[in-house]
Amino acid sequence: GLLFVPPDIDRRTVELRLGGNFIIHISRQDFANMTGLVDLTLSRNTISHIQPFSFLDLESLRSLHLDSNRLPSLGEDTLRGLVNLQHLIVNNNQLGGIADEAFEDFLLTLEDLDLSYNNLEQLPWEALGRLGNVNTLGLDHNLLASVPAGAFSRLHKLARLDMTSNRLHKLPPDGLFLRSQGTGPKPPTPLTVSFGGNPLHCNCELLW
Question: What is the pTM for the complete model shown?
């Protein structure tokens, strides 16, 4: 029944689970000085606003669960400070936009990104293409109508890409898709690609 993050949490806490409450707002003070926090779960609340730099002190955080909230967007400073983040779960929100710099602090550490079940028509594709360690990317059940050419070509560790149930009519040539067909150099990891539930035009543009 919590309406806010309790102010008296031990700053030495390593794992904090606050899921299934009624927290609406995350402020800069909520997690200040919690430099040892490794796992933070805020799932299934009613969070609609995160003050910029609210996670700035969470330099040890590996996993952040924000799924099943009401976040409308991720600004360039919303996730600032998460320099060791490996798992970012933000599915089932109301995301309509993500700033180009939103993932800047953990581009080289993130392994798992779930943005499914949102209202995304666009993504910071250039930033996504720099997630060198990502192995699972969930973009399903959004409103994406296009993917830039080569958007995934540098994601050499990607093992699962889900773009089910978007608005894609075509898919541009991408080195990633060649991996999924078993052509080209042997990939370091097997790759599963899901594109079902899209209004794909089955013409020569899908010849790959």
Answer: 0.93
